[in-house]
Amino acid sequence: MSEADKTPNAPVERETKVDVRAPRKRSELEKAISSKSFWRGVVALIGFVLLWEVCSRMEQWTGVEVPWIGKVPPPTEVLAAWTEIFWFAGYWESWYLSTGRVFAGFIAAMVLGIPFGLCLAVNRYFHDIFFPPFEVLRPIPPLAWVPASIVFWPTTELSIAFVTFLGAFFTIVINVLGGAKSIDIRFLRAAQSMGATQWDLFRKIILPGTLPSIFTGAAVGMGITWEVVLAGEMISGGGQQGGGGLGFFIWSSYMGGTVAQVIVGMISIGIAGYLSSSLIRYIGSISMPWRRLF
Amino acid sequence: MATNTETSTGSAKGKATLELKNVNRTFGTEWAREEIIKDFTLTVNPGELTVIVGPSGCGKSTLVNLVAGFDKPDGGEILLNGQKITGPGHDRMVVFQETALIPWQTTRENVVFGPKLRGDRKTAEIEAEADRLLNKVGLAEFKEKYPIQLSGGMQRRAELARAMINHPLVMIMDEPFRGLDAMSRELMQEFFVRLFEENRRTNLFVTSEVEEAIFLADRLVILSNRPTSVREVIDIKLPRPRDFHMLSSPEAFEYKRQTMEILHEEAMKSFNRTDRAFKSAAE
Q1: Which of A91, B160, B191, B209 has the fewest C-beta atoms under 10 angstroms from its C-beta?
Q2: CB distance from A188 to chain B under 8 Å?
Q3: Residues of A with CB below 8 A from B190's CB?
């Protein structure tokens, strides 16, 4: 009946007899701690903080000011400022507000950008109509949209979220478009031969084939949303409430004259950005098991 | 060695015939028109392994695309069992150059992909046949692996399984073993020839390797230079089942000499043409 019943022996490939069984499962944390590059990173960070401390205290100790870093408060002072504001609700409210704005804009950009990019890639008419205006709007920096956005939207909150959205949207669309266009045509042809409909091609080939680019776009876009949200908060003056987000926090600390607190704000943003992009990388590795192998 | 009394035309019953009749394919617009395939006529006999050999860049892949239905001829027609080919279909399965396994599907998912899409068989039936085929191509232990975890030879065998599960009438092989190292390539050729000999599915095999062509073929079709047409058809009368010792026989040697001579002539034509163009440009 079927050809599978009669069996010629498959060729023996000695050279490829590699043991590909998975080794004992180790947690991500365990893997990270046992890797050399993790410890290199730890040592580098400690070294950097030590150097900073020494350089900023140089004037105090020897009377010689180290240019540039000498003007910056040392890490110990920053840490002191941090522990002080750590217990203020306003500081955490800044985190909360900025994160909320970033994710509002970012999620909106993903929700609209991914289908838009995919449509640009798969439909010629859609591409002909929407790509030219898209390309004209794309080079406009998100911050240039701030005044227009304030006029356009009823509340400050919406204006900031809109500017944030723009920052991520264009990057995501361009990545999705490029990713979908670069899918190997043989995958599409093979699927077509086997009887795939247009919808099958989209669902089984184009969408999973674009996932790596979607996550690249998301990671880059996330970085841009943080840049944009802070600038937006500085410009808009942080809204009516007390805490106006991390951008406003930095701005008001600068106005209030505490440089250490400005640095606390800056580092907070660094951490927030790192956490957000780690989250994206994590979701990426879960949704693309075929890429997690190396 | 087991004796096999089948001759190359012995088991044609119930097998598909593929005919190409005066096929033309031209690329480019009016003022820069280039004929890639011109007046191409060939019949791939039922149950035969027809190997097409030609210099690289002569339009072999264009030919494959036409037969597979990815592309349409500008003139002439291609018939499968007398019916005109109008588009891709699972009656003709292509095994592509390098590998075209879908990277985000495991080996097993790749194999069941076609029948599951069409839903023309029961899931249990599909899974059972996938298991049998994977066993047959020696990948039973690797069915949950992704294509990048397989060696080159394993990927080609997975592709064969993925094609066979669709029960095609014709298999179209587009330089399938290109990019494999010499040893894996030889093993794959031997494996493939045994697969073919056991069910004799009509097969169109495209290659640029003369030895591979002679080792596999019932009929060897040598292509002309561009615009591509059939230059010569040689019946390869080496006995089946084939094995590699046959390649050192005097007949095989004669086939090889003949083929090389024609290919050389064709290559010289294009060489002379570019040479002339070069001279006239230099003047």
Answers
A1: B209
A2: no
A3: 11
Low-confidence spans in chain B with pLDDT less than 50 = 1-10
Query: How many angstroms separate the CA atoms of B217 and A290, rounded?
Result: 37
Question: Closest by alpha carbon to B161, among A10, A263, A124?
Answer: A10
A1 to chain B, any CB pair closer than 8 A? The answer is no
DSSP structure class, residue A142: G
Domain spans in chain A, listed from the N-terminal domain onward: 29-72, 86-291
Q: Give the bridge partners for B234, in sequence order.
A: B220
Contact B199, B164 (CB under 8 A): no
- A94 and A244 in contact (C-beta within 8 Å)? yes
Find the residue in A nearest to B142 (Cα).
Answer: A20
Task: State which amino acid sits at residue A5.
Answer: D
Spatial strand order of the sheet with B83-84 comes to B34-44, B18-27, B75-80, B83-84
Q: Is the peptide bond before A73 cis (omega within 30 degrees of 0)?
A: no
Task: Give residue for tokens 């096929």.
Answer: B23
Residue with the bigger pLDDT between A234 and B39: it is: B39
A55 touching chain B per CB within 8 A: no
Number of H helices, E strands in chain B: 7, 10
The answer to whether B15 faces chain A, any CB pair under 8 Å, is no
Q: Does B199 touch chain A (CB under 8 A)?
A: yes
Q: How many residues does chain A have?
A: 294
SS3 (DSSP) at B19: strand
Round the CA-based radius of gyration of chain B to a whole number and report it. Answer: 20
Is the Cα torsion angle B98, B103, B106, B111 positive or negative in sign?
Answer: negative
User: Measured between CB atoms, which of A3, A209, A290 is closest to B164?
Assistant: A3
Q: Model-level pTM?
A: 0.78
Share of chain A above pLDDT 90, in %: 43
Which ipTM score applies to this complex? 0.84
pLDDT 10s digits, B213-232: 999 999 999 998 888 889 99
CB contact under 8 A, B135 and A4: yes
- Which domains does chain B show, CATH number per domain? 14-91+177-248 (3.40.50.300), 100-167 (no CATH)
| Dihedral of the alpha carbons of A214, A279, A38, A262, in degrees to the nearest 10 | 110
pLDDT at B67: 94
Which segments of A66-219 are extended strands (E)?
none
pLDDT given for residue A6 in this prediction: 46
CA distance B156 to chain A (A): 12
Residue A152 burial (C-beta neighbours within 10 Å; 0-12, 13-18, 19+): exposed
Nearest CA in chain B to A192: B88
Longest dimension (CA), chain B: 71
State the CATH class of domain A86-291.
mainly alpha
Cα torsion B265, B270, B273, B274: sign: negative
